[in-house]
């Protein structure tokens, strides 16, 4: 198709740009990390959001090369920000990973190469994987995630609570943080049931010595509630939209 051809050209021409959305430490009300969210600058289509091309990239296998470019760009820019003193030395860069990237042969070597080339320490990198995508190959993905952790890279489970995986499976899965899906955060103020779900996720994470990141925080009331429930980290439009590195500068988020 036309989209496939355009996407191929986009890879050759490096048309992808990483945007960053701050992740706020609710204890200090400042950014302690950021999630990398890719955008495609297409010469004919304009700025294309990931939902419009990541699925095709996954089906066609192009996600392998696109994912590599994204990871490289994000690690390079993060190292640069830390070097310049704009971001703290313990800043956590979150990069989304498709399961097909995880399962490609030589992925571990690719990770090590990217870190070596960009000089970003492994401890500054968190890879986000979507829970519902892992269950297709549970044993293999668990094994690979453990190997990734052994490099010093952290694992976050994205969209947690929306998939069909069991809590028994979670017990097998290596992870350093759970990202609470924004549908729960959204409903939390409306329905007591959702507030109970958020409380349960935070409790599960604590039992696994893992952190929780609330996604899609849009109001001060949600932020206050999350603090009361003991959630440590949050991201969402209340704090900031995803934005290109050129718009980040040294600005910090200050909201209580
Ligand atoms: O930024 P936006 O809200 O449009 O992102 C939509 C979805 O696209 C998110 O759920 C996110 O997981 C996915 N996504 C964004 N950037 C990347 C990326 O670099 N790699 C992969 N695999 N998915 C991404
Ligand atoms: O699936 P993933 O969690 O990676 O998705 C991140 C997506 O969520 C991005 O597309 C980003 O633009 C979007 N997003 C970030 N903050 C908010 C928010 O506060 N509200 C909503 N509705 N979407 C958000
Ligand atoms: Mn994510
Ligand atoms: Na998510």
TrEMBL record:
EAL domain: residues covered: 1-256
Source organism, top-level taxon: Bacteria
Subcellular location: Cell inner membrane; Cell membrane
Stated name of the protein: Diguanylate cyclase
UniProt source species: Photobacterium sanguinicancri
Shown stretch of the complete protein: 588 to 843 of 854
């Amino acid at each position: 198709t036309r989209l496939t051809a355009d996407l191929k050209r986009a890879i050759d021409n490096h048309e992808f740009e990483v945007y960053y959305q701050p992740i706020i430490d609710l204890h200090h009300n400042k950014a302690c990390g950021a999630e990398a969210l890719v955008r495609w600058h297409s010469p004919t289509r304009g700025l294309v959001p990931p939902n419009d091309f990541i699925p095709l990239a996954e089906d066609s296998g192009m996600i392998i090369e696109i994912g590599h470019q994204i990871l490289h760009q994000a690690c390079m820019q993060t190292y640069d920000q830390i070097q310049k003193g704009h971001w703290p030395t313990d800043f956590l860069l979150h990069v989304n990973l498709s399961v097909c990237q995880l399962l490609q042969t030589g992925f571990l070597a690719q990770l090590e190469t990217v870190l070596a080339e960009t000089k970003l320490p492994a401890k500054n990198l968190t890879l986000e994987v979507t829970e519902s995508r892992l269950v297709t190959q549970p044993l293999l993905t668990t094994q690979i995630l453990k190997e990734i952790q052994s490099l010093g890279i952290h694992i976050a489970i994205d969209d947690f609570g929306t998939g069909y995986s069991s809590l028994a499976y979670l017990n097998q899965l290596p992870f350093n943080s759970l990202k609470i899906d924004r549908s729960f955060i959204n409903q939390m103020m409306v329905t007591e049931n959702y507030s109970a779900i958020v409380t349960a996720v935070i409790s599960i994470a604590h039992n696994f010595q893992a952190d929780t990141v609330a996604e899609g925080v849009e109001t001060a009331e949600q932020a206050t509630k999350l603090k009361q429930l003991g959630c440590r980290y949050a991201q969402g439009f209340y704090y900031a939209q995803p934005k290109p590195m050129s718009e980040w500068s040294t600005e910090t988020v200050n909201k209580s």
